[in-house]
Amino acid sequence: MILHLRAKPNARANQLLVAADGTVTVRLKAPPQDGQANTVLLGYLAEVFVTSKSRVELLSGHTAPFKKVSLPDVDESQLAAVLARHRVS
Fold first, then answer.
1. Residues 23, 25: Cα–Cα separation, whole Å
2. pLDDT per residue as tens digits for the range 33-46
3. Which of 66, 69, 70, 76 is most buried, by CB atoms within 10 Å?
4. What is the DSSP letter of 54?
5. Which residues contact 4 (CB under 8 A, 6 or more apart)?
6. Parallel/antiparallel/unpaired status of strands 24-27 and 2-8
7. Which CATH fold would you assign to the domain 2-85?
8. Cα(4)–Cα(32) distance, rounded to whole angstroms?
9. What's the rounded Cα separation, in Å, for the pair 17 and 7?
10. Do 5 and 22 touch, CB atoms closer than 8 A?
11. What distances in angstroms separate CA 47 from CA 33, 41, 42, one per listed residue?
């Protein structure tokens, strides 16, 4: 499964938010320097989707806020369930 999202570093806490239009934003506690935010992002997504951190891969957006992440162990129903739990009203 490929997840398209927007990463926002320097947040107070790690948080996954899904807007009404389906846009996924991940707030990250880490700063954007030296790939720290990307490392935290991958670890946080592994935690949220209950998969191994080594199976979560950043495909694009290494230095950009818009990212494409591979979650090979996550199927569509699991993705939909997780995103539904994090939907912002």
1. 7
2. 999 999 999 999 99
3. 69
4. G
5. 24, 66, 67, 68
6. parallel
7. Conserved Hypothetical Protein Mth637; Chain: A; (3.30.1200)
8. 18
9. 10
10. no
11. 22, 10, 9
- What tokens appear for 35 in the block? 């790939």
Closest CA to 9 of 75, 67, 76, 74: 67
Give CA–CA dist 80/54, Å, rounded: 22
Write down the pLDDT at residue 84: 95
In 1-89, where do the E strands start and end?
A: 2-8, 15-18, 24-27, 57-60, 66-70
pLDDT at residue 15 tops 90: yes
Instruction: Kindly list the domain boundaries of the chain, sorted by start residue.
Output: 2-85
pTM of the entire structure?
A: 0.94
Separation of CA 63 from chain center? 15
